[in-house]
Specification:
The structure is a single chain. This protein has 253 residues and is α/β, with parallel strands linked by helices. It is 30% helix and 18% strand. It starts with a helix and ends with a strand. The strands form 3 sheets. A 7-stranded mixed sheet has the order 3-2-1-4-5-7-8, sandwiched between helices.
Length: 253
């Protein structure tokens, strides 16, 4: 059922705007969490979900190609088969699946059951990453990837999250609140919007003259750094869980 109840609650506490505690040691005590290549030498496959241009997907793909992330993109799942992220995937020989189907009948898409079957059986995806995906994730998929599904949010959770809080809506709300800091949050995915356990955060200043666009650009630069770092840790088994359900990201160095 995704992260445990304690893990879900962990995503709602500690929201002081400070960066998450990360990179505490090169070797976690008592071994590592689930992840890695299983000892057979094959890199694990990641399913990446996109809805737009896919800049975070492109950053992840580049990190995989450079070896910073020890994994490959096994499939891209797009909410719009013509979005920039899907086009980028096709141009790099990466399979693309569409989910869900267009409500207006513009294009077909997988059902919930077909999506799960495609990821697990057809594409052998060991991890799921939401890189700017704006549709609901079915509960069956969340349950199939406990502690193996990450999302990136353009605000400092647990503030500025929940239904409707995405993209420019987040940055507009941050500026209107008078908050002095913002930044991206990488968190595990559960059945609730933006409430999974926080894995990593970065902080940027919010200036009095900021617009949603200028703040978005500043946050996006940090997204392209912290997301690859978090995904690299997850797939390499460098994420452990505290007894209270808070995940810890361990540095590779």
């Amino acid at each position: 059922h995704g992260p445990s109840r304690r893990a879900r609650a962990a995503g709602r506490v500690g929201g002081t705007g400070a960066p998450a505690v990360e990179a505490m040691s090169a070797v976690p005590p008592g071994g590592v969490a689930a992840g890695g290549n299983g000892g057979d030498g094959a890199l694990p496959k990641v399913a990446v979900f996109v809805s737009g241009g896919g800049s975070n997907f492109k950053a992840l793909h580049a990190a995989m190609q450079s070896g910073d992330i020890q994994a490959t993109v096994g499939v891209v799942v797009a909410s719009n088969p013509d979005c920039g992220g899907a086009e980028y995937a096709r141009s790099h020989g990466i399979p693309v699946e569409t989910y869900p189907a267009s409500k207006k009948g513009t294009f077909p898409g997988l059902s919930d059951e077909e999506l799960l079957q495609a990821l697990v059986q057809k594409h052998d995806a060991k991890f799921v990453v939401l890189a700017g995906y704006l549709k609901l994730i079915p509960a069956s998929l969340v349950a199939a990837y406990p502690n193996a599904m990450l999302n990136i949010h353009p605000g400092l959770l647990p503030s500025f999250g929940g239904p409707g809080m995405y993209g420019s809506n987040v940055h507009r709300a941050v500026i209107a609140s008078g908050a002095r800091f913002s930044g991206p949050t990488v968190h595990f995915v559960n059945e609730e919007f933006d409430e999974g356990a926080i894995l990593a955060q970065r902080v940027v200043p919010v200036y009095p003259t900021d617009t949603p666009q200028s703040l978005a650009a500043r946050v996006l630069k940090e997204e392209h750094k912290v997301f690859p770092e978090a995904v690299a840790a997850l797939v390499s088994g460098r994420v452990t869980w505290r007894e209270d359900g808070v995940p810890i990201l361990w540095s590779a160095h």
